[in-house]
Amino acid sequence: xxxxxxxxxxxxxxxxxxxxxxxxxxxxxxxxxxxxxxxxxxxxxxxxxxxxxxxxxxxxxxxxxxxxxxxxxxxxxxxxxxxxxxxxxxxxxxxxxxxxxxxxxxxxxxxxxxxxxxxxxxxxxxxxxxxxxxxxxxxxxxxxxxxxxxxxxxxxxxxxxxxxxxxxxxxxxxxxxxxxxxxxxxxxxxxxxxxxxxxxxxxxxxxxxxxxxxxxxxxxxxxxxxxxxxxxx
Amino acid sequence: xxxxxxxxxxxxxxxxxxxxxxxxxxxxxxxxxxxxxxxxxxxxxxxxxxxxxxxxxxxxxxxxxxxxxxxxxxxxxxxxxxxxxxxxxxxxxxxxxxxxxxxxxxxxxxxxxxxxxxxxxxxxxxxxxxxxxxxxxxxxxxxxxxxxxxxxxxxxxxxxxxxxxxxxxxxxxxxxxxxxxxxxxxxx
Lengths: 233, 188
Fold this sequence. Notes:
The complex is a heterodimer. By secondary structure, chain A is α+β, with helices and mostly antiparallel strands.
């Protein structure tokens, strides 16, 4: 290894462990001394490079990281809270939608009551059982007896289904009976109510019976009486 | 309520993960912040900028600590982040270049007064080195990196690195030989 190469190598790497360099150092007198001198220089450089580090740097770095983590936590908490809130909102909304009066015959009957309450409360057409049965015959049924007098009986429209609207007296006072032939997919709940009226429902083979009255009236016994009186033609 | 139970379990495993990550990070900071600060200082010649750079670097390191598989590679990894942060600093803002003589060079408190003077002087010489010479020199001197390792960190080939190391020392040595008289004058 010539002098130039040797020096280049040492300048580049004063602490070289390369056997070639080690051997070359022994080739010529003075090379070892040069190497030592260069190592001395390197120590000085090393010392000069080691500028003092702020004492608290490590602690500040850890603090900064702790704060970051804390903030991330907070952000995540906020996110979780938002997620939970939106889930709760969705649940609440779907409950509300589920519970809103939707289309069943019970609600329809109640709406009918509200719509006609003005004249139904006072009307008395003194319908006989025979004329009622005439009307019932078109629905394929007759009624054997009545719980009381019949004030009104006429056809009405239940969502496109021709039904019978009967206002009658009973042990519980004036009640309204709807007879709705089974058609379509509308169902009648066993019980339904609004603020002003309540009703009970019953399904016969060919039609629904809905009895509506005020909340104070005991409707179920009246309905049971009525439904047992029907005879299909 | 169901959510609560689930959360508790998940949270506990997350927190053990966090604790071990926290420990790794802490040992990383304690072991490597000193040399990283020095390296940053030699990149920017400003203690407070170096401080910021190190903070940024460790913050990024924390965020991607999971990607650090090999603890031995941590030094090179941190330096790579630091250099990127430093480069970003220049993207954000062009600094007016100051003459290095005007820049206050860090003072040492540990060495004897005579040593101090020599350090101070050598530091000035090092600060005057071209950055492309200074960086490999620091990696070798501060971190004890081999030529290959330096080449990897600086994305250069090994021959270039060796040439730059040679030139860096050569310039420092020349400066040392030329300047002794000047040295006394400047620091006396």
